[in-house]
């Protein structure tokens, strides 16, 4: 219709947690992000994607270019997403094993991470997760996964006062504000990336969709 302003598309975000622990702080943070997005961010939906059913990466499980059902289902969820929100603890100064396993499965051909926007949050120990976050950014270089630069989000889960209540609900409003800023940045960056991607005639990456 003439004069009508085009509505921005709804951004679909896949939220992945690198901890399999039932009471994971990082999963609690993702739940908070999902709630926050529902309540106060228009044009973005976050879906939690469980990586617990994935088998350990093993190319023997790949048969004629197909993957085990849990892997196919996970890959499809990533394929459908516009962007990815990673939350994870740091493990021995690096990425947790479950998260690396999920990344590796989705990187198998065709690499379904390619050209997605992404953001990282972490609840960890003393280092607050800085080291693993930078390892993930390095992996993103190879996978054509594009991370927002700022804001960065690091949280020490052990430092008082408690950030979560006994049900895993985020109770620190300042942390909630930080999380919201990160989500808004991810939304803006995803739209910018898609604008640039779909308006360019040629993509220099070999793995363009
Ligand atoms: C095997 C292992 C290694 C860890 N290594 C680190 C580390 O290098 N740096 C850090 O800050 N925390 C480290 N931690 C602590 C976790 O990051 C912390 O307990 C985190 O809150 C757990 O996340 P979750 O609550 O989402 O499971 C480690 C924990 C485990 C189990």
SSE topology:
Blueprint lengths: L10 E7 L7 H16 L3 E6 L19 H12 L2 E5 L9 H11 L9 E8 L5 H14 L2 E2 L6 E3 L16 H27 L10
Parallel strand pairs: 1-2, 1-3, 3-4, 4-5, 4-6
Helix pairs in contact: 1-5
Flavin mononucleotide binds next to α1 and β4.
Sum up the structure in keywords.
209 residues, alpha/beta, Rossmann fold, six-stranded parallel sheet, 6 strands, globular, binds flavin mononucleotide
Number of helices: 5
Q: What form results from the Cα inertia axes?
A: globular
Radius of gyration, taken over Cα atoms and rounded to an integer in Å: 17 Å
User: Which segments are poorly predicted (pLDDT under 50) over 5 or more consecutive residues?
Assistant: none
Largest sheet: 6 strands, parallel
Question: What do these coordinates show?
Answer:
This protein is of the alpha/beta class and 209 residues long. It has one domain (11-197): Rossmann fold. Helices cover 38% and strands 15% of the residues. The chain is built from 5 helices and 6 strands; from the N terminus they run E-H-E-H-E-H-E-H-E-E-H. Strands 1, 2, 3, 4, 5 and 6 form a 6-stranded parallel β-sheet that branches. The longest helix is centred in the last third of the chain and has 27 residues, at 173-199. Residues 19, 21, 24-26, 89-93, 123-127, 157 line the site of flavin mononucleotide (FMN).
Quick description:
The chain has 209 residues and is an alpha/beta fold. It has helices at 25-40, 69-80, 97-107, 130-143, 173-199, and strands spanning 11-17, 44-49, 83-87, 117-124, 146-147, 154-156.
């Amino acid at each position: 219709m003439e004069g009508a302003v085009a509505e921005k598309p709804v951004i679909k975000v896949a939220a992945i947690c690198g901890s399999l622990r039932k009471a994971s702080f990082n999963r609690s943070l993702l739940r908070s992000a999902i709630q926050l997005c529902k309540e106060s961010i228009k044009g973005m939906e976050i879906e939690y994607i469980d990586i617990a059913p994935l088998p350990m990466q093993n190319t023997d499980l790949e048969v004629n270019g197909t993957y085990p059902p849990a892997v196919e289902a996970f890959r499809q969820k990533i394929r459908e997403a516009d962007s990815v929100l990673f939350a994870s603890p740091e493990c021995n100064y690096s990425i947790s094993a479950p998260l690396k396993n999920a990344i590796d499965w989705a990187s198998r051909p065709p690499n379904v991470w390619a050209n997605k926007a992404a953001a990282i949050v972490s609840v960890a120990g003393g280092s607050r997760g800085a080291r693993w976050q930078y390892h993930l950014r390095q992996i993103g270089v190879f996978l054509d996964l594009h991370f927002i630069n700022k804001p960065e989000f690091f949280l020490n889960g052990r430092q008082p006062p408690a950030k979560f209540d006994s049900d895993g609900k985020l109770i620190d409003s300042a942390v909630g504000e930080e999380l919201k800023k990160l989500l808004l940045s991810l939304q803006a960056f995803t739209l910018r990336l898609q604008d640039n991607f779909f308006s360019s005639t040629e993509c220099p990456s070999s793995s363009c969709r």
